[in-house]
Design a protein that fits this description.
359 residues, 12 helices, alpha/beta, single chain, 38% helix, 7-stranded mixed beta sheet, 15% strand, 12 strands
């Protein structure tokens, strides 16, 4: 038997591993998971009924074209159906976008720190990451990102609100940035947390897409809509980009359960808005309490908060876990903490109060 191994692509060497939020320990002291930005509410009204009905057809493939969901989204956003592309969460579509635009010798620009998947999907395609540091306030430095664009740049990710800091760029800042980006460079506005944004000066990526063929908007049903376990997201983009996404999609990647649940979720918008409103109010309470304790907390427009802890990050995460909540540490930098159930948030705030006294 030969001792040689199959030859794999060199680009796969050293790809960072995506680190999901640590789950709550079964049977252990941890009772609440605040590490994955999940919605603490159960599925929206009508979702369980649609999923139960779809489960009767497990023996059949799902609709490859996601026709019903595509139609619902086109109506919801007032865009042509041909400008909609669905995928396995917004992260799946992000990977397809890089595959569609970038390869060896090309560059992908994004802020750092930002969504952990960006360096992974870039390296998988063989392209080169160009990471632009956030401002001291943990916001995208759009001027520096524009300066980083070269003839080799094929795609730019703008995560707004940014994961994991929760900060958002303003409409005028984004418009000025887009004016500087060459028309042949695709700008992906990753708006996974768009529903949680509050403020008249905050942008809606769909507005920019309508007038700019090089803008693509990513959205997901995993966060506000509470369908994280079903893996369904979508992109709104002009026809050449949307068509490329359909070409690079894994066939039948979005299950029929996910499609039907997403349609039902879109039709339960009143309930969605109520839940999101409650989470935003709880977010305000958490941020105000943290600042009252003496913490410096960036203005968050997402369903989580960011605490810079530097070398104390691991200690803080351990203290939270011991108290009964699990958070998402970024070693040497800080922790991202989901705004969850009131009880979970209270436990977290009790830990921050005690930890702050030790700093």
């Amino acid at each position: 038997m030969s001792e040689t191994s199959p030859r794999l692509r060199a680009e796969l060497e050293g790809i960072p591993t995506y680190k999901p939020g640590k789950p709550a320990a079964a049977g252990g002291p941890v009772a609440y998971k605040l590490s994955s930005n999940e919605n603490p509410y159960p599925p929206l009204p009508g979702v369980m009924e649609s999923v139960t009905a779809a489960a009767a057809s497990f023996n059949r493939y799902p609709d490859l074209s996601c026709a019903a969901l595509t139609s619902e989204l086109a109506d919801r956003f007032g865009v042509p159906a041909a400008h909609i592309a669905t995928g396995t969460g917004s992260v799946g579509i992000a990977q397809q976008l890089v595959q569609s635009t970038s390869g060896p010798g090309d560059e992908v620009v994004y802020a750092w720190r930002s969504f952990e998947a960006y360096p992974i999907v870039t390296q998988i395609s063989g392209a080169t990451s160009v990471q632009v540091p956030l401002t001291p306030g943990d916001v995208h430095d759009l001027d520096a990102m524009a300066d980083a664009i070269t003839e080799r740049t094929r795609l730019v990710f703008v995560c707004n609100p940014n994961n994991p800091t929760g900060t958002a760029v303003r409409r005028t800042e984004l418009e000025r940035f887009l004016d500087r980006v060459p028309g042949d460079v695709l700008v992906v506005l990753d708006e996974a947390y768009r529903e949680f944004m509050r403020g008249a000066d905050l942008p809606d990526g769909v507005e920019f897409y309508r007038e700019r063929p090089n803008v693509c908007v990513l959205r997901t049903f995993s966060k506000a809509y509470g369908l994280a376990g079903l893996r369904v997201g979508f992109a709104i983009a002009h026809e050449p980009v949307a068509a490329a996404l359909r070409k690079t999609a894994v066939p039948f990647g979005v299950s029929q359960l996910a499609q039907d649940a997403a349609v039902a979720s879109l039709r339960a918008e009143d309930a969605l808005l109520g839940r999101v409103g409650s989470l935003v109010a709880e977010r305000t309470r958490v941020v105000d309490t943290l600042r009252g304790q003496g913490w410096t907390v960036p203005e968050t427009q997402a369903n989580f908060v960011w605490l810079r802890l530097g070398e104390r990050t691991a200690d803080f995460a351990a203290a939270c876990e011991q108290a009964g909540v699990v958070v998402r540490p970024f070693p040497g930098e800080g922790v991202r903490v989901t705004v969850g159930e009131t009880e979970a948030n209270d436990i977290f705030l009790k830990v921050t109060e005690g930890f702050r006294k030790e700093l």
